[in-house]
Design goal:
- This protein is 56% helix and 0% strand.
- The protein is mainly α and 131 residues long.
- The N and C termini lie far apart (35 Å).
- The structure holds iron/sulfur cluster.
Length: 131
Amino acid sequence: MLILPITHMKTLSEVGPLSEHPRITREKKTIDAMVHIYCKDHHDTQKGELCPECSKFMDYAKMRLDKCPFQEKKNTCGKCLIHCYQSPMKEQAKVVMRYSGPRMLTRHPGLAMHHVVDGFRKPPKKAVKKQ
Ligand code: SF4
């Protein structure tokens, strides 16, 4: 019988849904980077770690991306016409984006450039059917 060591297994949130579009994967990387920048500078966490509050926010943001009705056609969440976040998380998102957005240009320039380009997309009016 083959026994896999638990330390080498990835969680579902690390792997992502099998049908995930690369755009959604990139969006998750972007939010991941932004939350890490914010948490390290505000909650004195070590590089690569998150405090429980920021970890909860990031899980929520990734869950919203999984459920986003626009999927790969989405604009940036900040320009979304429906904005699906619940109120406390919406406020948290604004705080994190306001702080980490400008810092992304120097720390994660590739993701930052994609985010800027995505912001020029027209906000979709219709939802995308998930495969
Ligand atoms: S805020 Fe808009 S674009 Fe962002 S995940 Fe929610 S529905 Fe999708």
